[in-house]
Amino acid sequence: MPRRKIPTAHARTAAEHPDERARLGLNxxxxxxxxxxxxxxxxxxxxxxxxxxxxxxxxxxxxxxxDGTLESLAAGGAPRILAEGDSWFDFPFGGDPFERGDVVAxxxxxxxxxxxxxxxxxxxxxQILGVTQRQRxxxxxxxPKTNFNVLLFSGGGNDIVGDPMALWIRPREPGMSTRDAxxxxxxxxxxxVVRAAYQHLIAIRxxxxxxxxxxQIHLVFHQYDFAIPNGKGVCGYGPWLRPALEYHGWHTHPxxxxxxxDLLRRFAGMLDGVAAGAPRVHIVRTQGTLDATDWNxxxxxxxxxxxxxxxxxxAELRRLFPDSVKxx
Length: 328
Description:
With about 325 residues, the protein is of the alpha/beta class. The protein has eleven helices and five strands. Strand 3, helix 8 and strand 4 form a beta-alpha-beta unit.
């Protein structure tokens, strides 16, 4: 009998949960192999896209050098920007992999300066600072052809949402307040891994600066605005917030929203702690920017929302490079 084919998202879920395997009528070894193969292909596709973006960026730099644009930008102290991260920097509103509707796509149009974007939707901070992607990032920062002086980074959101979120949400008991809904020791453990990823990123930047005396690289991080746990996913993925909250009895929207806001405020506090005392580390403060109508789903702004977030990044870059990043 031929093996039943199911969407990748379901294959991953079924591979991890025995009851889901039974519901789908699949045996564990076959399913694990299918999910693993899907994951491998997805990683290869992401690597191919990064390589294509890098080649295109270098080609554009060459064209700019030929027509004098590069020298003009360099004379004005323009930023050379590398972006790495998750779906806030890589969100596919359109079908062209080079044309997105996310923060980086919107920011590129605002500042009219090319950005090399390594971000891949779905990536966790621990993946980005793992061996493979870490090596790619270090190589890009060390490349004298690009000589990046800004690294935009979006990471950590995927590390604290989704099914594992059930581990740091407490079951609701009679009379229990939302202030007690988060199991703080468990959540701090999860947040600690994200914190370590950011600290390692700063260390990578510091090493790149030491390797080239006189070089300065600005790191630009961002808060995640207050997502709305409405149960809405996108393209077969998600939801990421509501299931864990409802599983533990937090059914009402005000309660669920309050808990998510608390989680994200703690994430923002972690960022402030990481940045404290570290030179050239900047936090883009987005919390409170988006209205309810600015969200596409539980985690991602819509086009209008990403535009609002990109405008805050623009203001930060303009502060850092006042002579070359112009007002909108």
